Amino acid sequence: MSKKIQPSPATTPAPEIRYVNLYEAEDKVYIRHITGFYQRLRRYTGIPLLLGYLLMPWLIIDGRPAMLFDLPTRKFNILWITFSPQDGIYLAWLLIIAAFLLFTITVMVGRVWCGFTCPQTVWTQMFMWAELVCEGDRNKRIKLDAQPWGLQKFLRKAATQTIWISIALVTGLTFIGYFTPIRALCVNFFTFHLSLSVAYWVLFFAGATYMNAGFMREQICKYVCPYARFQAVMFDHDTLTVFYNKLRGETRGPRKIGEDYKAQGLGDCIDCSWCVQVCPVNIDIRDGLQAECIDCGLCVDACNSVMEKMNYPLGLISFTTENSVGKSKINVFRPRVVAYGSMLLIMVGFFVYSIANRVPLIIEVLRDRGVKMYRVVDDNIQNVYTIKIENMDRKQHIYNIRVDGDFPFEVQGYKAPPLADGEILTVPVRVVVKREVLTGEKNDITITLVARDDLAIKASHRTTFIGPAH
Predict the structure, then answer these.
(1) Considering the entire predicted model, what is its pTM?
(2) Are the beta carbons of 235 and 293 closer than 8 angstroms?
(3) How far apart are CA 249 and CA 254, in angstroms?
(4) Is residue 385 domain-shared with residue 349, that is, in the same domain?
(5) Which of 340, 358, 376 delimits the end of a domain?
(6) Does 137 share its domain with 238?
(7) Which end of the chain is more exposed for a tag (fewer CB within 10 A), N or C?
(8) What is the pLDDT of residue 25?
(9) How many domains does the chain have?
(10) Could you tell me which of 239, 229, 232, 221 has the C-alpha nearest to residue 118?
(11) In angstroms, rounded to a whole number, what is the distance separating the alpha carbons of residues 117 and 194?
(12) Which of the given ranges, 131-135, 236-240, 255-259, 445-449, has the highest pLDDT on average?
């Protein structure tokens, strides 16, 4: 007969293993409305970005949308500059700069991008505002969902859904307005004259907004967003983020205002769970730093409001660093921060310099394959080229052409027509040189275009002039 062995009381208990079923539906999260410094800061940082997103497609600069990515014509208007696919290097630079900016901010202040300016956060705030207005605060929403369906519940839920759908449609229309003129888009949408493809994309992005901000709020931040997965690589012990001061807060427990809780062996935390109730990703910051935390600061506001009521010092939960919990000194200028910041400044400087000195003209030169390598006409040697000229400026220009090389080359057959903004011209030209002065079989030449009204607009292309073997 086997004997059951009882574990020794001194034996350290094994850590609890938590199994997560990814196919199991999670309980609905009811967020408590709270006011405070960080809540106001989220509003003041989110509203300008939201207004910029909504108004930018409507802004007109030089008679065209300030922001329009016209894919059929391959023209990308960004404020006062029109880019073409050949300017893709600027997009690569911009993405690299954005990555280093993210690294720098994360090393310094954690996931403040997620908590204050991420579109998922901003749109979720709007959807939560609609719930607050139509259904009430946390406790009222819980009671409303628990009660049977009736006229009052139907009207409140219908009002919430109406606001959600309206926000989602405006979001979808605005996003597609970055790819097609938004004025015509809105008129065609509300008059049911949209093409099937455009209508599909408007409804697709509206539906994605409706689902993400309405029903998948914390799941997006906890499971979908890749930033939560690799943020720990960029954190160090001096990264500013939300921390709970365990030395001050433990042991937790309820008490009355004015009661000598320290005599009972209690800390400052009254275990009210407000920090959990206001958390948009439904975590308990008292459990320590977690990948799901978006550093929104709502738990800080909630805890500070409770501390005020209890007449305790503020800052039980605060933005601080792991090395500075409970202290006032924070180490900001660290080698990693200085390195990231220096590289970021250098890249931004090069990017701004490159954009400022960008020439809004593209020239491509191809040898005409429909003719011989060279032709002999009278005493001249001719090469025929096809020149493609693209005016990327916002003004009309007339371009002069010249050829530079080791010999006195001339251009024939080129007429300088005016090119409107964004216009592309393909024209054949002949480059001619006297046979008696040409000594080489292959000669390097440079074909240059210069705008008549602005000598700073100049582009060149290097190619080869073929002559007879001597």
Answers:
(1) 0.78
(2) no
(3) 12
(4) no
(5) 358
(6) yes
(7) N
(8) 55
(9) 2
(10) 221
(11) 32
(12) 131-135
Q: With 50 as the cut, is the pLDDT of residue 67 above it?
A: yes
> Nearest-CA neighbor of 172 among 191, 194, 200, 192?
200
How far apart are the C-alpha atoms of 413 and 417, rounded to whole Å? 12
Q: Which of 324, 358, 392 is the last residue of a domain?
A: 358
Query: Which run of H or E residues covers position 89?
Result: helix 88-109
CA distance 33 to 137: 6
Long-range contacts of the stretch 364-369 (C-beta < 8 A, 24+): 364/388, 364/461, 365/447, 365/461, 365/463, 367/463, 368/428
Contact between residue 458 and residue 448 where contact means Cβ atoms under 8 Å apart? yes
Strand partners, 424: 390
Cis peptide before 251 (omega within 30 of 0): yes
Cβ neighbours around 237 below 10 Å, total: 10
Q: Which domain holds residue 386?
A: 361-466
Residue 419 to residues 172, 366, 400, Cα–Cα distance (Å):
36, 20, 12
Give yes or no: residues 323 and 236 share one domain.
yes
Q: Which residue matches tokens 């004997």?
A: 3
In contact, 105 and 112? CB cutoff 8 Å:
yes
Closest CA to 365 of 390, 392, 385: 385
Pairing between strand 361-367 and 410-412? Answer: unpaired
Reported as a single tens digit per residue, the pLDDT across 328-368 is 677 777 888 888 888 999 999 999 988 888 888 888 888 87
- Comparing CA positions, the residue from 205, 313, 295, 306 lying closest to residue 254 is 306
* Residue 364 β-bridge partners: 388
Tokens 């809004």 belong to residue? 360
Give the closest residue to 120 by CA, choosing from 266, 35, 225.
225
Query: Residue 208: CB partners within 8 Å, gap ≥ 6?
Result: none
HSE-CB of 22 using CA atoms within 13 angstroms: 3
pLDDT digits (tens, 9 = 90+) for 213-246: 999 888 888 888 887 777 777 787 888 889 999 9
What DSSP string describes 296-334?
--HHHHHHHHHHHHHTPPS-SEEEE-GGGTT-S------
Placement of tokens 């009882």 in the chain: 6
Inter-axis angle of helices 37-55 and 151-176, nearest 10: 50
- The Cα–Cα gap between 75 and 80 comes to 13
